[in-house]
Design goal:
single chain; 243 residues; alpha+beta; ten-stranded antiparallel β-sheet; 5 helices; 10 strands
Length: 243
């Protein structure tokens, strides 16, 4: 019996010794897959929704795209990114997995997803700046920015499908839906953030004589048809830079 007990003890010790080694192997594999971007993957796991809903809580669609992140003063390239627009979380997908992590917004300055660039105004301009992430629609001395926010609502009558901003599948009997909300602002060179909700909000940023000049230019540009709000703002800023 004593001999058998010693054998069991030795077997148990062998297993205990193997577990740290296995953990070390897993960590080494993760480091190899993550490369130099492992710091980005240390955040909390992305918020998981177990309910059925229509639309999407992502900025545009659930697909992850390659991009880059300026995080804690360092740039990380070729990482898979998306945005949870309902929570305004930047998400990064761990390589070779489906695990999504939240990149800590306190250290996130800016990032790109595909061809789109985004700014964290709270990081760049201080705590009085608007929260969340903002897409750069026009980059110049005055930047024109867009924020997409997804709001969860009830759709009892099934009439809000065109408010999702998403052309994915729509389920008739599902009453929860994420609708697409947008906000715009201008970021001046001095770090001042100006909310822009309508054309006149943009014009108020300039002297009266310059406003008249802008109106004449836009009238020539529009002709008989009014251009959309985003195009109007970018057109005005491009015109001012070309004067």
């Amino acid at each position: 019996m004593m001999k058998k007990g010693k054998l069991l003890l030795c077997a148990l010790l062998a297993v205990l010794c193997q577990e740290p080694a296995a953990a070390q192997d897993d960590q080494a594999l993760f480091q190899a897959q993550a490369g130099g971007a492992s710091l980005l993957y240390r955040g909390r796991k992305a918020y998981i929704r177990n309910e059925l809903f229509n639309g999407t809580y992502y900025w545009s669609d659930p697909g992850y795209k390659k991009g880059s992140v300026v995080y804690n003063g360092k740039r990380y390239d070729d990482v898979l990114l998306n945005i949870d627009a309902a929570r305004q979380d930047l998400l990064v997908r761990i390589p070779n997995s489906v695990i999504e992590k939240v990149v800590d917004e306190r250290y996130t300055e800016s990032f790109t997803i595909g061809d789109s660039r985004f700014l964290n105004l709270r990081f760049l301009c201080g705590e009085t700046a608007p929260e969340g992430y903002w897409q750069v629609l026009h980059d110049g001395p005055i930047r024109f920015l867009l924020q997409v926010y997804k709001r969860k609502e009830q759709d009892l009558e099934g009439s809000k499908g065109n408010q999702t901003g998403y052309d994915g599948p729509y389920r008739d009997k599902v009453i929860l839906i994420y609708t697409r909300q947008v906000a715009y602002c201008c970021l001046r060179e001095d770090g001042t953030v100006v909310p822009v909700r309508r054309r006149r909000d943009l014009l108020k940023m300039f002297e009266p004589s310059l406003r008249r000049e802008i109106r004449r230019h836009v009238n020539r540009r529009e002709g008989d048809g009014m251009i959309g709000f985003e195009l109007y703002c970018t057109e005005v800023l491009q015109y001012l830079e070309s004067r």
